[in-house]
Amino acid sequence: MPPAHDLTPFREQELAPAGNPAVVRSADGRWYTVTGPCPNCHANSVFRVAYGVLGPYKGRWLGRRSEPEPHSGSILVYCQCGFPHPDRPSESPDTGCGAFWDVPVP
Amino acid sequence: MTDLTRKRFAQLGQQLQLEQLTAVRKQAEGWRNGLTALTGLVGVVFVLKGRESVAGMPAVWRWTTAALLVLAFALLLTGALAAVRAAHGRLGQRMWLSGDRLMSAVLDEVEHTQDVLTTARRCSVVGLSAVVAAIAVSWVVPAEAAKDEKPAGPQVLVSTPVGITCGELVLSNGDAVTVRTGGKGKLRRIPAGDVRSLTPTSRC
Lengths: 106, 204
Ligand SMILES: [Zn+2]
Ligand SMILES: [Zn+2]
Hints:
The complex is a heterodimer.
Chain A: E1 13-15, E2 22-25, E3 31-37, E4 44-50, E5 74-78, E6 99-104
Parallel strand pairs in A: 1-6
Antiparallel strand pairs in A: 2-3, 3-4, 5-6
Chain B: H1 4-18, H2 20-48, H3 52-55, H4 59-88, H5 99-145, E1 155-160, E2 163-172, E3 176-181, E4 186-191, E5 197-201
Antiparallel strand pairs in B: 1-2, 1-5, 2-3, 3-4
One zinc ion binds next to loops of chain A.
């Protein structure tokens, strides 16, 4: 059963992570996927972090590309639940309730 | 404490992720334009300084000119590449696009871009000065060098009943043919009636 979603007024606030966000690295090493509920509006969401704008691998002069080093520290995740939280400014690029939180990378 | 800047950089990271292809294409376009301009650079350096203009110089000056041009080319090339690098950057290359990483990467990129721009400016100024120096050398040097060089006029063989005279053709009209013979430029006039034939030659 999906968790209930609270249509709270839009507010940009830093919160402690809720539930147990899972941080998973993709098989090819190019992505981190953070899955977990929003601590504010409780929407379940997936947040992705990619390696590099120009692709993940750096060729050594056209040679083999190596796998990127792991992300250390934590990843800042923000709510992208997609619900029309009230009071969200129309010019805001946000698509969620405004909350953001840190998820440590294992 | 709510640190909105950190969220903004996380948002920038998500945006970069979505626009990766556009960003790469733009960058490629910038490099293409830059590299096309570099091709023009070769033209500028070597058309300004054609081979003919160095041909008459003494060896020392010829080598000086060549060295100046090679130096100028290397500097202008470095400068142009650095300018392209500064204009098209590589923010977000080889790093995780998470907020905090991006924040420090942006600061690094700003510093780096400024450094690269300084390099580009210096290289271009010195490179252009070298081109100008090379041109100046060719203006000044041949004036002194020309005296001990071969005459510029056409060489001819003038055949007369008493023999053949070879030299630089100075004047030829209905009365006579005048040629300059020998290194010191002694003029010799041969009346038209004596001339049996006049043949161009590459050397005497
Ligand atoms: Zn929500
Ligand atoms: Zn939310």
